[in-house]
Design goal:
This protein starts with a strand and ends with a helix. A hairpin with a 2-residue loop joins β27 and β28. It has about 775 residues and is of the alpha+beta class. The protein is globular, with a radius of gyration of 30 Å. Strands 20, 21, 22, 23, 24, 25, 26, 32, 34, 35, 36 and 37 form a 12-stranded mixed beta sheet that branches. It has 15 helices and 39 strands. The longest helix is centred in the middle third of the chain and has 21 residues. α2 crosses α14, α5 crosses α6 and α6 packs across α7. The chain folds into 3 domains: about 180 residues, C2 domain (Immunoglobulin-like); about 90 residues; about 450 residues, Cytosolic phospholipase A2 catalytic domain (3-Layer(aba) Sandwich).
């Protein structure tokens, strides 16, 4: 199946019948004071059913026997992990959760029955006995669509209509309620009985066919079915939906980006020939992919980036770049630039002057009554559109007032005008998807935004930028929501209000390890009896022990975020492929605690929870390390507060752990104490890694030189005293207003640090070209 030039596999895969017989438990720990536990077992297999099943409750018994059987229809290409949870029934308070066993059904072989003993631990001798059987199901195989990580299954549409048999003169409006559990729509109401209405408009329900759900009907004035009113007819019809997906499943670049790269080379190749003074034209295979990467830092990063880009423009290196990535404050600069379809083909003085006007203006007007009314109106409109609003949306509106003269109707997809001819580098904005009750060490997923697509590299799932925020189910677009104005995305990309206690601790102590034992799930591998033969793609059987009241309270206090940006999850409904942990693309970005718990991964969430990338690492480099982009050289423009090397060190550590090719950063202690303006790490010891040019934001030779080779006069020495990080510095990350002098100094410093390191930049470009030529040979 061809989707935007990317091949997605359509497979015919059989389903199987999983039989689970819960036999008994032994030696259960007593939780009640005056009696033994009143236990039952809950069975949850979300890949097979929307319902949780449970056994009967056996009262006052430490060795309960249930001997109850449950059936599940499972898809063999899906990762099916059955959760067997043991509870103690409590009439007054919430049922006590004793433990949960996670069992991967991939351990089972067709046609075999296995009697399993799950032992909680050696001390308590608690056991759970379960019999499993896996059998073939007669009938045609199921058609699925997969990229090897996610699986989309067949969707059906059920159409329901009510018709009144005979119109009554005094009829009143009647409300029917229809529910299909597990469908996209859930519950729908139908009104019937107005003067002209003899029949209702059809109600439609989209559901996964494998779940075989029921239609629940509630009649007017009646609390329960069955449908017994003889004055109405109910018509229902179910049809298969087309297999076409609106979510692109694939790990290659989308067709638009591939087309952009071809067009961009027409700018890059002659630009490289000119700046490197080459005698011959560069062939396609000899043209390196150059990327400019930035870090966040509020208004400081917004301002300094303008200076860096102007420096690159003056060196004619800007035309050599294929990508420009950003997060937090640098996304504000990028959003401003890409309003102009030809911004990199002009000098940047106009944009810099326009930004200065907004950086130096009085900001108190942003909190005026007029603006507050405007904010309220805009938030109400987003809520009417079906969005989940938060304080982050308000922050986006405040940013709009700080950085513009009025309402800004610009959208991310509008930036396609600025790249469709290859005339500017492709902008990539970054965010991190997180999960409530987990630190970013335990769960984070990179999300990238381009004018063409928004997606998660880890899953190989992307949607058109204009569809981001709309509602999807199993890869199909269900409800189109108007595309957000870019100010709301800027608020999300720079959501400084999404911090939690763990982030504050990490910022001050450089490690969350002290609190990790309080914020991680207590999950242990357990041995089952008999021991089944190990298969490459199967998961270990594990046991989860829930935390006590104190542990839960402390965990919430440490991990809860003040506010978070939530958008409809376009992965909703997908399931994980049985071999997803063997997929090289997924493995490149996995490493979080929940990656081996497929029932709890992002496809099961209603919303994406997006925060500033800086809450994990203050870098926008990850999209550039996607192998399909084949980036050869990265200009790392750092605008962080405090340590200028922390984000780079964290990136090196992360890439090493993930097996991602990245140059080794070797800085001496002396260099770290007294950083220079630029460092070249050619990655020679890491074959395949890009060349890295690292530009920390420092005030080194700028103190004595107003331009490369031009010393300052005595009267100009004051202009070189740019206090970047002192206690009285005007460039705090949380500062939202600069003086004209402070703004100009920072722009000039950013530009100077680029211009003063022309030789290192040219050396890096020469190295990249030489490697491309050598690789071809």
């Amino acid at each position: 199946m061809e989707q935007d030039g990317i091949l997605s596999q359509i497979e015919s895969s059989p389903c199987s019948l999983l039989t689970v017989r819960v036999i008994r438990a032994r030696n259960l720990h007593q939780t009640d004071v005056l009696s033994q536990s009143d236990c039952y077992v809950s069975l949850w297999l979300p890949t097979a059913s929307t319902n949780k099943f449970q056994t009967k409750t056996i009262k006052n018994c430490k060795d309960p026997v249930w001997n109850e059987t449950f059936y599940f229809r499972i898809q063999s290409q899906v990762k099916n992990v059955l959760e067997l949870a043991l509870y103690d029934k409590d009439v007054v308070t919430q049922d006590d959760h004793l433990f949960t066993v996670y069992f991967d059904t991939a351990k089972l072989s067709l046609g075999e029955q296995v009697f399993m003993h799950f032992k909680r631990d050696s001390q308590r001798q608690e056991e759970l006995d379960v019999v499993f059987a896996l059998d073939n199901i007669s009938g045609p195989p199921e058609t699925i669509i997969t990229n090897g990580v996610l699986v989309s299954r067949k969707i059906c549409c059920l159409e329901v209509q009510v018709v009144e048999k005979k119109k009554k003169k005094d009829s009143l409006e009647k409300e029917f309620s229809f529910k299909v559990q597990g469908s996209y729509e859930g519950t729908q109401e139908i009104m019937l009985g107005s003067d002209l209405a003899f029949s209702s408009s059809p109600a439609r329900f989209h559901y996964a066919r494998y779940r075989q759900p029921t239609l629940d009907v509630t009649l007017p004035g009646k609390k329960q079915p069955p449908f017994s009113d003889k004055g109405f007819d109910l018509y229902a019809k179910a049809e298969d939906c087309p297999d076409h997906l609106d979510v692109r499943l694939g790990f290659d670049l989308c067709a638009q980006e591939q087309d952009f790269l071809c067009k961009r080379k027409k700018y890059v190749a002659p630009a490289l020939k000119k700046v490197l003074q080459l005698e011959q034209d560069l062939l396609d295979h000899e043209t390196p992919v150059v990327a400019i990467m930035t870090t966040g830092g509020g208004m400081r990063s917004l301002t300094a980036l303008y200076g860096s880009l102007r420096g690159l423009k003056k060196l004619e290196v800007l035309d050599c770049a294929a990508y420009l990535t950003g997060l937090s404050g640098t996304t504000w600069t990028m959003s401003n630039l890409y309003r102009d379809a030809d911004w990199s083909q002009k000098d940047l003085d106009k944009q810099i002057s326009e930004a200065q006007k907004h950086m130096t203006k009085c900001k108190i007007n942003s909190l005026s009554l007029e603006y507050l009314k405007y904010y309220k109106k805009q938030l109400s409109q987003r809520k009417r559109e079906g969005r989940k609003t938060s304080f982050i949306d308000l922050w986006g509106l405040v940013l709009e007032s700080l950085l513009h003269d009025g309402k800004d109707n610009h959208k991310l997809s509008d930036q396609q005008r600025a790249i469709d001819g290859g005339q500017n580098p492709l902008p990539i904005y970054t965010a991190v998807n997180v999960k409530n009750n987990y630190s970013t060490l335990d769960f984070k997923e990179w999300v990238e935004f381009t004018p063409y697509e928004v997606g998660l590299q880890k899953y190989g799932a992307f949607v058109r930028s204009e569809d981001f925020g709309s509602e999807f189910f199993m890869g199909r677009l269900m409800k189109k929501v108007p595309e957000s104005r870019i100010c709301f995305l800027e608020g999300m990309w720079s959501s400084l209000f999404s911090l939690n206690v763990l982030y504050i601790w990490n910022s001050s102590h450089s490690s969350e390890d002290f609190w990790h034992r309080w914020t991680r799930d207590q999950v242990d591998n357990i041995e089952e009896e008999p021991h089944l033969p190990q298969k490459p793609h199967e998961l270990r059987t594990r046991l989860f022990t829930p935390p006590g009241p104190l542990g839960s309270t402390l965990r919430s206090a440490l991990t809860d975020r003040l506010s978070i940006a939530q958008e409809h999850n376009f992965l909703k409904g997908f399931q994980m492929h049985n071999d997803y942990l063997e997929n090289k693309h997924f493995c490149r970005w996995k490493g979080t605690v929940l990656d081996t718990f497929p029932n709890q991964l992002t496809q099961s969430e209603e919303f994406l929870s997006l925060v500033d990338t800086g809450f994990f690492i203050n870098t926008s480099v990850m999209p550039l390390l996607k192998p399909e982009r084949k980036v050869d050289i990265i200009l790392h423009l750092n605008y962080s507060a405090g340590s200028q090397t922390k984000a780079l060190d964290q990136t090196c550590k992360y890439c090493s752990e993930q097996g991602i090719l990245f140059p080794r950063v070797d800085l001496s202690e002396e260099d770290r104490r007294n950083l220079k303006e630029c460092y070249l790490f050619d990655g020679a010891e890491t074959p395949g890694a890009p060349v890295l040019l690292f530009f920390p934001l420092v005030n080194d030779t700028f103190q004595k030189y107003k331009a490369p080779g031009q010393k300052r006069s005595e009267s100009e020495m004051e202009d070189g005293k740019v206090d970047l990080y002192g206690c009285c510095s005007p460039y705090s990350t949380y500062s939202i207003q600069y003086t004209e002098k402070a703004y100009d100094c920072l722009v000039q410093l950013g530009e100077y640090n680029i211009l003063n390191n022309k030789d290192l930049i040219m050396q890096a470009l020469h190295t990249a070209v030489a490697r491309k030529r050598q690789k071809k040979k």
